[in-house]
Amino acid sequence: MTNSNISSIDSLLHQTTYLDNGQLVEWKGQMDDVYSTISSTETYQPTHLGTVPHMDEPTALKVLDSAVRAYDQGQGSWPTMKVKDRIECMSSFVEIMKTKRSEVVKLLMWEIGKTLADSEKEFDRTVEYIYDTIEDYKQLDRDCSKFEKVGGINAHIRRGPLGVVLCLGPYNYPLNETFALLIPALIMGNTAVFKPAKHGVLLLSPLLEAFQQSFPDGVINVIYGRGREVAAPIMKTGKIDVLALIGNSKSAIALQDQHPYKNRLRLILGLEAKNPAIVLPSADLDLAIEECINGTLSYNGQRCTALKIVYVHEDIKEEFNKRFSKRVDELKFGQPWEDGVKLTPLPEPGKPAYIQELIDDAKEKGAKILNEKGGKTTENYIYPAVLYPVTESMRVYQEEQFGPVIPVKSFNDIQDLLNEISKSNYGQQVSLFGDNVEALAPLIDVLANLVCRVNLNSSCQRGPDVLPFTGRKDSAVGTLSVHDALRSFSIRTFVASKDNPKNNNIIRDLLKSNKSNFVNTDYLL
Ligand code: G3H
User: Fold this and answer.
1) What are 29-70's pLDDT values in tens digits?
2) Are strands 429-433 and 476-477 parallel, antiparallel or unpaired?
């Protein structure tokens, strides 16, 4: 794709269909406009990208019924299918998906303002995630292709699906994070209703046909619209077995509250975080500064794994603040496809004003903006402000800013800092910068109990996707990774038979006849 291709919108994309029961059904009702905050004209104006259905409750419930029918209380062809056949569907999907790379990447840039390099990475990482999931599922199946004999019982233990999944992804990784839920959910034999987030919706259009062509009717269904109007009524029916959501705890709790049988509802949630960086006196400052730049500002800080507060030891705070602020001001703001661009338009039109509120509040309570460009605002951006000294009373300390503003707080006594972090509502990850093993060891031991990933001398991140991704407190429910997600979306279930000649003959016949997809010891190559 040439840059002229990606830097202009030649035609609008009207997504007039939704995916229901294997059919791309024409939506005849209200449509919602999709705008990009990227301007293609000299005087600023948002760019019209197209439209998507504004679906209503009755249609959402009809689509839900397609997923419920396809699962059919575990009797549907998808949940009872041979593992190898489900893998074939997924393989067919990923092959078609790969042909849509340039369309999806372009829409990622326009819809959510992600840089070209990061948009390509998001696509490629998702494709790799699917391949890795297929391989991991094969291994899981191989490990289950056997009987265990214990206490006079022969047990054939597998992992079975959970039921119907409502899948809701976030706008910052509308492809990767959504698929990191959807792919394991489907491959394990669940059926799904998927609703894209508020931003990053059209980029799924090129993949709708791939879904339709690759999976049996009703296995994957795609709806559009407001969460309140379509997702909440779906939950209210009590027909959802798994709520898989990457977003914030407020929406997760509101949706759970709708469900009439809470004990039946499984939760797989990736929620808010406020990952701290801790810069110790022994830290290599060049490295710490570069990692903190990436950690706080890649994709403008709109990552759940972003560093959202930086704690610097008193002894090095002046040096750190000076050099860090200078580096922030060197970052180039521009359109996502421009060379060397690091900061890009914010997809949420109200975000610059919100960040400005946080800055004003911090300034009122005694913080200063350390960098010259900090807080400079345009129609679609607010240049990252490094705020120091930040205190616990400030909103920027308390709230997950999810955008370009960097609170810095100094510390003297590491125990005080640990006490402070342990009071936090969040518990995803931490970045620890330092070289002194004596100081690091006790810190690591405590931090590992406060969060779920301690990054030594590097910024926080989710990847590589084979590593466990989870959090404590308000940051997550359940664990995701290629390997763990297959477990999160399934349950152990088994066939047990007393070890006697009659039963053993039946088992032998079952295996020989190849009639059961469950009692099966075929080895997947
Ligand atoms: O929004 C949270 C994402 O999981 C972050 O993923 O660390 O790979 O950017 P990442």
Assistant:
1) 999 999 999 999 989 999 999 999 999 999 999 999 999 999
2) unpaired
| The pLDDT of residue 64 | 99
User: Is ligand 1 within 6 A of the CB of residue 305?
Assistant: yes
Phi, psi of 246 (to 5 degrees): -115, 115
302 CA: nearest ligand 1 atom: 1
Residue whose CA lies nearest to ligand 1 atom number 6: 462
Q: Which residues fall within 8 angstroms of residue 446, CB to CB, at 6 or more apart?
A: 418
Q: Distance between CA 473 and CA 450 in Å, rounded?
A: 9
Residues of the chain with pLDDT under 70: 1-4
- Interstrand relation of 472-473 and 275-279 (parallel, antiparallel or unpaired): unpaired
CA angle, corner 388, sides to 424 and 352, nearest 5? 80
How long is the chain? 525
Distant-in-sequence contacts of 385-391, Cβ < 8 A, 24+ apart: 385/355, 385/359, 386/321, 386/324, 386/325, 386/328, 387/359, 387/362, 387/363, 388/317, 388/321, 390/309, 390/362, 391/365, 391/366, 391/367
Q: How remote is the CA of residue 126 from the centroid of ligand 1, in Å?
A: 12
The single-letter DSSP state of residue 199 is S
- pTM of the complete model: 0.97
384 closest CA partner among 393, 395, 375, 392 = 375
Starting from the edge strand earliest in sequence, which strands make up the sheet with 385-388, in order? 368-369, 385-388, 405-411, 307-313, 275-279, 429-433, 453-456
Q: Calculate how far, in angstroms, residue 440's C-alpha sits from the geometric centre of ligand 1.
A: 25
- In the block, residue with structure tokens 């492809």: 175
What does the alpha-carbon distance between residue 169 and residue 177 come to, in Å, rounded to a whole number? 6
CA dist 349 → 110, 302, 352 (Å):
14, 14, 7
Distance, in Å, from the CA atom of 4 to the CA atom of 6, rounded to the nearest integer, reads 6
Residue with token string 């959510």: 112
Which residue blocks in 403-500 are alpha helix, DSSP H? 414-422, 437-450, 482-488
Q: Please tell me the number of Cα atoms within 13 Å of 205 on its side-chain side.
A: 22
The response to whether residue 183 sits with its C-beta less than 6 Å from ligand 1 reads: no
Residue nearest to atom 7 of ligand 1 (CA): 461
- C-alpha 234/C-alpha 231 separation (Å) is 5
140 close to ligand 1 (CB < 6 Angstrom): no
- What are the helix (H) ranges across 217-309? 232-236, 249-258, 285-297
Give the integer Cα–Cα distance in Å for 55 and 116. Answer: 31
Q: Return the bridge partners of 267, or none.
A: 243
Measured in Å, residue 494 CA sits from the centre of ligand 1 at: 36
Say what the pLDDT of residue 3 is.
Answer: 60
Q: How far apart are CA 344 and CA 404, in angstroms?
A: 10
- Please give the backbone phi and psi of residue 126, each rounded to the nearest 5 degrees, phi first: -70, -40
